[in-house]
Structure formats: structure tokens, C-alpha cells
Amino acid sequence: MAAPVLALKHTLTRYCPVVFTSLSRRTLPGTRPAAARRMSLAGETLRPLEGVRVLDLTRVLAGPFATMILADLGAEVIKVERPGAGDDTRVWGPPFIGSESVYFLSINRNKKSIAVDLKHPRGVKIIKELAAVCDVLVENFIPGKLSQMSLGYEQLSRVNPCLIYCSISGYGQTGPQCQSPGYDSIASAVSGMMHITGPEGGEPVRPGVAMTDLATGLYAHGAVMAALLHRHRTGGGVHIDCNLLSSQVSCLSHIAANFLNAGNEAKRWGTAHESIVPYQGFRTRDGHVVVAAGNDKQFIKVCEVLQLTELTQQPHYKTNKLRVHNRQQLIHTLSQRFLQETTADWLRRFEGSGVPVGPINSIQEVFSDPQVKHNNLIQEVKHPTAGRVSVPGPAVRYSSFGPVGPTPPPLIGQHTVQVLRDTLSYSDDIISELLEARAVAQNTVS
């Protein structure tokens, strides 16, 4: 073994004796068993999180989105759900495919589901035992709720000092609003996201998808990856505080910096950009096209394609700063010209010009787009009750390993018995007792 790996083994053995026995049976970074190395040599390279086990106590969107990305990267994700009801999104519809919510199906591939009653003492005991043999725990309860159930970070880190415990909340683990429930629409409003979204002079608008939830899920996924690297170097676990408010405020980017440094209060611009002109959508004869002229050279090209080269000679359009100051008349002139041709005509005219352009696609048009198809952004899975289901696939590709065919989003409690038997080594008698006591539930649909 290389020295860093020996050091890691020593650290885990010394500080995480409860965990090391379990981890050593699986894949530690740099200590893959011979069979795994043979798989790699045969061209079937393991994904980076193979051997990492994630206990997923989240529901709705931000948490499940984060754990789905971890699952795509090879992690074993054990999703804990309430017996009977399951994840809230299981009833978010229509549309449904059979009895399955399409919303739930879209963000829960590659996971196992166990149905555990956290109000039952034996259910709590199961979660503690799972936490002892998992690498990561992700939860999105109101801060302090799990601690009241003896499942907080302080309690679980005693049984697993190497545990990476990621808490996702609305506003953070501490502070005046920490006990407020976290919802995308509320966080989007409080964070200022809605204030800057919508038509110029119009009402605030909620983004078409829950971008605050999704951004938080991406932050949480990245934080877990960083914590895994931290543990690899130090042998220690960590508590991650990830919340909707902080995620969205950090994503305000230059809007935030404009206010913090120049005192500029943002406003709504529709498809336009407050600091670049022309950089917005234009109505065509049959639809819309977005043009993004990010510099003076591209502005000249736009005018050439539109056959409005006289605009390039006007002093008040010479630079982007001047175009921003004289935006209204320039946009009016460009808008009148765009109305004279179809979207397809304009796309052909701009082809090869060096100016970034694109149509405003309907969702149907998105999934007919050749580049979307080329990027393999549609995944198909065969669900046990819903049949063949299509969902958006992973956004990122890697040169050294490829995606594995996804497993379908699970039924509620589909893997309860399997996890209790294989992961916790429960006997059939104990499993039967737990089922009879309704501490857990097993889905019987095959």
C-alpha cells in the first residue's frame, strides 16, 4: 500500500473503529480490491463514488437532487421514507404515470427506498445503525428536529466519527429564521431572486423551475464531494450547513456586487441585460430569438446581418457603455427589423457570424434539438409499476468513466428488507418483528 493509503487506514482504524470494519469491506479511495482493479483493467472503470454509502433522509427537491447526482457518480443511496406516504413529491401531480408522480420520478433514480417510522423507537435505532455504516448522511429537517430524536450530528458522530453529515435547510442551522420551514418560492422571494425576475416594469415572477432548490442541491452535492476529500486527507467527518437562502444569495453574483460596491439597486429586465446591449430576446415573425452581442465587434456583426450597418456609424452606439445609455431607441430599431423574418431565417442569417444566437424553444423543441440528443440528456428506465419512463439525464460527462444504465426510482419501501438484511445483517426473525411492529414497511409490488 502507498504511504497515504496506509496513513488513511491507520487514521480510520484509530479514530473510526466502528466504521473501518464496514469500509474495509467496500472501496476506500486508493484501496480498491483486486476484483475492482480487474474491472478497471477490463475497461469497466469504476465510477468515483463506488463504495461510498449515502443515507438520504431528504424529501422534495434540493436534497433528492443532490443525492441523485451522488448516485449517478456511483454512490449507494439509501432513501429513508415515511411508511405509507413516502416523499412528499410522490403525490405532486398530475401528471402521473400509473400511480407514480412524474415529479418524483424525475429526481430519484439510482436509489434504494426503505420505509422507516422515525416516531417508533426501533425505527430510530435502525437509522442510528445505518449511520454507523454509512459515509454520508443528508437530511433536510428543520434545524434541531433530528437532535431531539437523537439523530443529530453530535449524537451520530459519536458512533461514526468519520460521518459526513449534510444538513439542508431553508435559512441555516442558526440565526433568527433558522426554525422557519424552507420552500423554494419563499427563499426565492426573500433572497431577491423574484425581485430581479420578470418583465421590465412588470410584476415579480417566479422562475419556471425551482432554481433555488436546484442551486442548493448542486451546492450540497459539491460540499459532500469536498467533505469526502477532506476526510480522505484527515480521517475526520464534518457537519455541512447548506441552505436555500445562502445558496440563492450567493447566486446573485454581479447583481449583488453591483449593489454592494456601487449602491445600484437591481430591477427587472425581462430577457434583457442591464449592462450589455443588445443582449436579449427579440420577437420574430413566428417566434423569438435571443441575441447576445457581448462586445463592440459582435454589435457590428449584428448590424451587418440585420442590414442596418448605418447604426454602426452613429456616435451614440459606438461602445457598449453608450449603447446601454441609449438602449431604448436602439432596441426599438432592432426589434422592428427582427419582426420581418422568421426565427429559422434569422438563425440561418447569423450562422457563422460569430454572434451568439438561439431560439427560445418550447420544451418539445428542446428535446428535438440535435445537440440535446447528442449530449444524451434523456435517460430511459423501466419502472416496476409505471413501465418505461424517460427523465433528464446527467449534465456532465467524464473521459475516464461513463454513466451506468440507471435503475428506476424506487417504490416506497421497495428495498427495506434488502437493506436490513444485507447492510445491517438483521435476521429474518428480527425483520419480521419490525414489520409486525410497523417500525418499518416493505413494498410487496414486484
Question: What is the compact description of this entry?
Answer:
It contains 20 helices and 14 strands. The chain is an alpha/beta fold. The strands form four sheets. The chain has a seven-stranded mixed β-sheet, sandwiched between helices. A three-stranded antiparallel β-sheet has the order 9-10-11, covered by helices on one side.
Give an overview in words.
Helices cover 39% and strands 14% of the residues. The protein is α/β, with parallel strands linked by helices. Helix 4 packs across helix 10 and helix 10 crosses helix 11.
SSE layout:
Elements: H1 3-15, H2 17-24, H3 34-41, E1 53-57, H4 62-72, E2 76-81, E3 96-97, E4 100-101, H5 102-105, E5 111-116, H6 121-132, E6 136-139, H7 145-148, H8 153-159, E7 164-169, H9 184-190, H10 211-234, E8 238-243, H11 244-250, H12 253-262, E9 279-283, E10 288-292, H13 296-305, H14 320-325, H15 327-338, H16 343-350, E11 357-359, H17 363-366, H18 370-374, E12 378-383, E13 387-392, H19 416-422, H20 428-436, E14 440-441
Parallel strand pairs: 1-2, 1-6, 2-5, 6-7, 7-8
Antiparallel strand pairs: 3-4, 5-14, 9-10, 10-11, 12-13
Helix pairs in contact: 1-2, 4-10, 10-11
> What share of residues is helical?
25-40%
Mean pLDDT: 90
Distance between the termini: 44 Å
Strand content range: 5-15%
Largest sheet: 7 strands, mixed
From the helix content, strand content and strand pairing, which structural class follows?
Answer: alpha/beta
- The general outline is elongated
Q: DSSP helix count? A: 20
Low-confidence stretches: 1-15, 17-43
Question: What is the strand tally?
Answer: 14
Order of neighbouring strands in the sheet with most strands: 8-7-6-1-2-5-14
Rg from alpha-carbon coordinates? 26 Å
